[in-house]
Amino acid sequence: MLPPHLTPEVFDRAIVAVALTAGPDHRLVYYNDAFRALFGDRPLDVPAHQVFTEPGADRFLATLDAVLADGTARQVTAHRTLGCRDGLATHRHFVYSCSPATTRYGPGILAAAIDTTAELHSALEAERLSVERLHALRRYEALTAAAARMVWVIGADGRTSELVPGWQNLTGRPFPATVDADWLDAVHPRDRAGVAARWAAARDLPAVFEHTFRVRTADGGYRHVSSRAVPVVREGEGTEWIGTTADIEDQWRNRLRERLLARAGAVTEADRAEDAFAALAATLVPDLTDVCAVYLLPGPDAATGPVVATRIAAVARPGLPPLPPLAPFGRQTFTLGEHARKAVSEQRPVLFRFTGGQVPDGTVPDISAQWLHATRATALTLLPIVVDGAVVALAATACCEDAPPPGPADIDLQHEVLQRAQAPLRQALALQRARHAVVVLQRAMLTTPPGVGGAAFAARYQPGSRNAEVGGDWYDAFALPDGSLAMTIGDVAGHDLAAATTMGQLRAMLRSIAYTRRHGHTPADTLRELDTAAEGLGVGSFATAVHARLVRHGADGGWELQWANAGHPPPVLVPVDGPPRLLAAEEADLPLCVDPRRPRVTHRHPVGPGETLLLYTDGLVEVPGENLGDGIARLCAAAAEARHRPLADLCDHLVGRVADVRDDIAVIAFRPDPPPARPR
User: Fold this and answer.
1) Where are the beta strands (DSSP E) in 234-331?
2) 675: which DSSP letter?
3) SS3 465
4) What DSSP designation does 592 have?
5) Which one of 97, 405, 454, 488 has the largest count of C-beta atoms within 10 Å of its C-beta?
């Protein structure tokens, strides 16, 4: 059977520019209409270095060489630029990816490019408009600076008077008669310490006092004012102060709005939705709120019936207690309550006011409610995040440590900022959905280990977080006709659809070989036959594996482990007591799909009652730049620490200790039942 190859003609009418090269000189053998529209006509059956001669093409040629050399797909997400072609008025911009492909022309590379000209031009136009708005803002500030201000005097004895009144109109209370403790009552609680410290420093020198702070207005809200006072010394008899206060709320809010919208607009493309939403939440903290958490919804506008949201990002201002951590798998979830569903269905913010951190039940997860109670939260705002007309996430912002609730203008600005980063959120969500689809495909290839009398199996698969593609890790366990058990772990090189396809083929062939062979067929025989079949059927791809056979041994509940290792990290045996043991051979056998003629060796070792056998892939132990033995040592220590936990909990413990899941992780564990406790 010939290996399947890519038929490029399926891309003829694709909206994405697609080209195909073949051979070590990357001959251009195919391109579609979209490619022609973006790059113009290019000669076919000509090496790439003769086809792509424009400035900067050397980077593209180097990418082709790298992909062909190691078989790993690469993406270039920084915008690349084409010069103006005949008949075009502007430059064209694009991003591209290169992936290995098997074609009728032989091994080659599939290049796909996306025209980003319109998106980049829109960003540049937005930047131009932002500069124009800033100039207009400066002119507006100059105009307001010329307007009337409140003018006041503080005598050397501390008595005060207004020369140009306005304080009572703004705050609803008389101007303070003296400078004493009560004069700070109208100041925002967060700003009082700063105002008092700045005034004390100015009086001690004496020097100019200048400060911006918030005061409570007659309607119960807060507005920013700017105060400036200068000392007037009269013949050494004490210092009098003359000062002005101006309501600068509009200027301050306009400047804050420009700054926050610029920060939100700077949220760039992200491979993970978590990163995009965390960057967006960080634009609100601490300028507009004390904390912002983002909950991803399962589908657009899921507002009827029970809806389970997932917390994927959270940011708090410095000085607050650490936020509840995001759970490593599935993350923190909760079912939306009535008010949250209302915010989603009506696509508008919902504000809750309360005292002492008493968050209404069902508004946020219990662990988040406990954190808000500990920080004496006074308000919680639920803000829907809308992308392409649909609510995709819900942001929750809160005021902590007895801070006053946000006013309508604050909430409107929070909502506007959250809606700013449409393009990166759209891309991140699309990548997350694609990644979810391929992970579902991957999991569908992995079966649940069988139930076994007198023993237990448990297995876990965790996809890598650094790519959106299917991996080649797998595990398997099944009962054999003679009553023994087969147990396998494997890893096909690569993180693409080809790796997953090869994984599925190798796994299926190994199952068939192991199941159909008679008693006496060893694990080494099974791996050797698998290697031969893979070469003969053209399935060959570099892979490692451990294949084991477990046979009940004696009447004490123990088992005999027979295994062969094809270049894979060694199994770990965790005894009931004592240090874990690596089941490593002095000379490891070759990986699969290297040389089927080389002999393979079957090893044997007992697995006693209550002992745990672990098979795993390198994603569980490998850290870039670190010796693999260090990772295996950490695994042994973690397994020893949790050896008495139920087998499923042990697997979760091992996978959960991996801080950065860059590569796929597969682990399968086997444990004979411990002997029953003797009655005392």
Assistant:
1) 239-247, 291-296, 308-316
2) P
3) coil
4) B
5) 488
Note whether 611 and 575 are within 8 A (CB).
Answer: yes
The CATH code of the domain at 8-115 is 3.30.450.20
The order of strands in the sheet holding 239-247 is 160-164, 150-154, 239-247, 222-233, 209-216
Phi/psi of residue 474, each to 5°?
A: -155, 160
Residue 233 in 3-state DSSP?
strand
> From the CB of residue 347, how many other CB atoms can be counted at a distance below 10 Å?
16
**551 touches 455 (CB < 8 A):** no
| Residues near 527 by beta carbon (within 8 Å), at least 6 away in sequence | 510, 545, 547, 564, 566, 589, 592, 600
pLDDT for the residue 114: 87
With H, G, I as helix, E, B as strand and everything else as coil, classify residue 17. Answer: strand
Domain pair 150-247 / 256-434, same fold:
yes
**In contact, 98 and 108? CB cutoff 8 Å:** no
Both tokens of residue 41? 């006509």
Strand partners, 562: 549, 604
Q: What is the pLDDT of residue 557?
A: 83
| Nearby residues of 539 by Cβ (< 8 Å), 6 or more positions away | 3, 502, 505, 506, 509, 533, 593
Percent of the chain with pLDDT over 70: 85
Q: Which CATH class is domain 150-247?
A: alpha beta
Q: Give the pLDDT of residue 468.
A: 44
- Compute the distance between CA of residue 24 and CA of residue 231 in angstroms, rounded to an integer: 80
CATH superfamily ID and name for 256-434: GAF domain (3.30.450.40)
Low-confidence stretches of the chain (pLDDT < 70) are 1-5, 84-90, 136-148, 181, 235-238, 266, 268-273, 299-305, 326-332, 421-446, 464-471, 495-497, 659-662, 677-680
pLDDT of residue 633: 92
Residues 6+ apart with CB under 8 A from 356: 373, 376
pLDDT of residue 444: 57
What is the per-residue pLDDT for 115?
87
User: Hey, how many other C-beta atoms are within 10 angstroms of the C-beta on 467?
Assistant: 19
Break the chain into its structural domains and give their ranges: 8-115, 150-247, 256-434, 445-672
Helical H segments across 172-307, by residue range: 192-204, 249-265, 273-282
